[in-house]
Structure formats: C-alpha cells, structure tokens
Amino acid sequence: EVHLLESGGGLVQPGGSLRLSCAASGFSFHSYAMNWVRQAPGKGLEWVSGVNGGGTSYYADSVKARFTISRDNSKKTLYLQMNSLRAEDTAVYYCAKGRGWLVETSIDYWGQGTLVTVSS
Amino acid sequence: DIVMTQSPDSLAVSLGERATINCKSSQSVLNSSNNKNNLAWYQEKPGQPPKLLIYWASTRYSGVPDRFSGSGSGTDFTLTISSLQAEDVAVYYCQQYYSTLSSFGQGTKLEIK
After folding, report:
1. Distance separating the N- and C-terminal Cα atoms of chain A
2. Best mutation site among A106, A108, A110, A112 for testing chain B: the one with the most B CBs within 10 Å?
3. How far apart are CA B98 and CA B103, in angstroms?
4. Residues B60, B69, B67, B12: is their CA dihedral positive or negative?
5. Which among B102, B104, B108, B109 is the top mutation candidate for probing chain A, defined by the most A β-carbons within 10 Å of its own β-carbon?
6. Helix count (H) and strand count (E) of chain A?
7. Band of the pLDDT at A41, cuts 50, 70, 90?
8. Tens-digit pLDDT profile for residues B59-101
9. Do A44 and B55 touch (CB under 8 A)?
10. Phi, psi torsion values for A29, nearest 5 degrees
C-alpha cells in the first residue's frame, strides 16, 4: 500500500526558511515523478513543484528561485527547501505521487499534508 | 503557463440527478505523441487530501464508481456525475499535466439541492 508522510511544517517568520520532507513507502520510489501541491486556507489547489524520476525539477512561477525540490531515492524521501518565505506561502503542503516517471502525469496518491504558517 | 478555468464555481443538484462541471484550458492539452488529453479530475472532501477520479480526460481511475465520467478534447472538458449520491458532495478540480508546469482549475463546489 502506498503511503506518503509529510513532515517539517510549522510557524516561521516572513523571510525565514523551512524544509519539508515526505517519506514514501509501498512503491518503487525512483520510478515515479513526485510533486508538492499546496492549498492556502479556504482556497483551491496550487501545483508548486515537481521532479521526475531522474531528478529534473520544475517550479511554479510563484516559488521559482525561492523553493528547491529534491529527492533521495536511496531514502525514498522527497524534500522541499523553502527560503524567503512570504505570508502568501501559508498553506497545507501535500506530497503527491505521479502516475509515471515524467512530471507530465496525473497524481494518484497524496499525503495528508503539513501546514506551513508564515507570520510574525 | 496554461490557465485552467472551471465553471460553475458552485453547483447544487438534487439527489439522483445529473451534475455537470466544465473545465477550459487556455491552450490545447492534447498530447500529439499518444493522441490523449493530459487532463485529470480530482475530488476533495473536507479534511481529506484530493482523490484522483479521471485521467487522460476520460479514463476512470481504479475503484471510481461508473457514475463518474469525463469527456472533451483540446481545450474543453466536462466531468459528469450521472446520478448524484450524498457522498459526492465535495469540491472538484481539473488539472492539466500537458506542461511540465502543471496547473489546477479553481475548483467547483458541489452540493445537494
């Protein structure tokens, strides 16, 4: 059974940094694209970043140059390093598994999410 | 970037009736390499992560009831629930995965009339 467990969320001041982790199990992690999708309070889903099975990464314009996605296939873990955080980055961040190796794929499994709050 | 626009923003349908949600992309999401549309539909219920319903615009995901169906091609897509059940109350999102920068529609809230 596929499991995705996010961690690392919390309260951070504007301009601060946070690193999210997502521990994956139940599938061949290295064979699938992985994504981070966020949802601000009371708002819709926003795709943040994705990485294909080979490690090539992609970012939404709203986070480009501030966020870095990475994966450690040996640890079956996905990461999101978030720098220069802003109030508008406040959201639940979901780790999400793609259905294929490329990022151009739908998402078949989601974690339960971790809340990031950016506030002074 | 591809912008996804759903309509309506909210919808109230009687139990047993048909519900229809539309999704329009700012450019075609038809993948010429396999002649499939890179378009998915998700269902989100309060306090839960989204669930995949439909991919390739019309392929039902494993375990999804057959009252859910997807249609459309190019830039215009539709999610149809043929006979609304109480458990279908949720927010529904479309997503394009044609671009390496994926994007979601703003969501459609479905309620019981």
Report:
1. 40
2. A106
3. 9
4. positive
5. B102
6. 0, 11
7. very high
8. 999 999 999 999 999 999 999 999 999 999 999 999 999 999 9
9. no
10. -50, -45
